[in-house]
Structure formats: C-alpha cells, structure tokens
Design goal:
3 helices; about 90% helix
Length: about 200
C-alpha cells in the first residue's frame, strides 16, 4: 500500500518549466528571489512538522490494536507531506536556477555588447594612436632639425669669429710689417746720407 502510494505521488509531481531567456528587471528579480526563499522556508517547515507528526503518530500507534496498519497510515501521511515539501523546495530551487541562468545570460550579453562596442571603436582608437604617434614623430623631427640648425649656426658663428680674429691679426701683422719697412727705409736713407757726407768731407782739401 505504501509503495503504491509513493509511486502514485511521484508520478503526480509537476514538471517545472524553464524561465524565459529575458533577464528580469531588478524589482521582478527580487520578488522571484523572495518567492523562492519563501517556498524553501515553507518546505523546510512542512518537512519538520511532518517529522514531528510522524513521531507522535508512531507513538500513538503502539496503543492501537492494528499497530502495523496504523504505522503504514502514518508513514503514508508523512510521505504526502514530505513530497509536498519537496515539491515546494524544487519549485524554489527552480526559480533560483532560472534567475541564475538569466543573470548569466545578461552578463554574457553585456560582455558581448562590450566586445562589439570595442570592435566598433577600434578603428577610431587606432587612428588616434597613429595620429599621436605621427605628431610625436613630427615634433621629434622638428626638435632635431632645430637642434641641428642651432649647431650649424654655432659652427658658422665660430667660423666667422675665427675669420674676424684672423683678419685682425693679419692687419696687425701688416701694420707692423709696414712700420718695420718704413723704419728700415728711413734707417737706410740716414745711413746713405751719412756715407755721402763722409765721402764729401774726405774729398775736400
């Protein structure tokens, strides 16, 4: 009798349908979580109450004339209550599984949308990177050119200063040479005059 009752009740357990793919909004999600928690709490309370009733009934059955029949009825009643508790618990767990699946689907959709967005923005980011790189290269080339130009100007300025200094030295040397030439010419003229005077003096009676 008890075995037939168990099979009958198992066959009558409802099949829970899977939730839709669309993720619930925050309020609906919380309501469903609260319902799942309430169902599981109700199942636990029913199971505990059924265990207490079974224990009490088995104690009473000892006092009955048909002890075994009394115990079978108590077990059948306990099984009905336990199966109902299991149904409620399964329903609560199914709701939680559906929410977890919806959350996972929402996260995956978010990741996919993020990847798609990054892929759409990738050409723009690459163009920005290329523009920044080109700008940096142009700035570096300009800086190098300015540096080389300043170095060349420094070389030209030093060369000009060296040439100016050389010219000054050459002019100074030319003036010294001219003074030396005039002094020698003057000295030679004086010596010539002195020689001429001495010759005339020697020729006079």
């Amino acid at each position: 009798m008890a075995t037939r009752l168990i099979l009958l009740l198992l066959c009558c357990l409802p099949t829970l349908a899977a939730a839709g793919d669309a993720a619930p909004d925050a309020a609906d999600r919380q309501q469903r979580l609260d319902r799942a928690a309430a169902l599981k709490a109700d199942a636990a309370a029913r199971r505990k109450a059924a265990d207490a009733v079974l224990e009490r009934q088995q104690a009473d059955c000892v006092k009955r004339f048909f002890v075994n029949a009394c115990r079978d009825d108590a077990k059948a009643e306990h099984l009905r209550a336990t199966l109902e508790a299991r149904r409620l618990e399964n329903e609560g767990e199914a709701i939680e599984r559906d929410i977890r699946r919806a959350d996972a689907a929402e996260r995956e959709a978010g990741r996919a949308a993020e990847i798609e967005q990054r892929e759409r923005e990738r050409p723009e980011r690459e163009a920005e990177v290329a523009a920044r790189r080109q700008s940096a290269e142009e700035a570096a080339a300009k800086h190098q050119a300015e540096k080389e130009q300043k170095a060349a100007e420094g070389v030209r300025r030093k060369a000009a200063e060296a040439e100016k200094q050389r010219q000054k030295q050459a002019e100074h040397a030319a003036r010294l040479a001219e003074k030396q030439r005039k002094a020698e010419k003057k000295q030679a003229e004086a010596e010539r005059k002195q020689t001429e005077a001495e010759r005339k003096k020697a020729e006079s009676p």
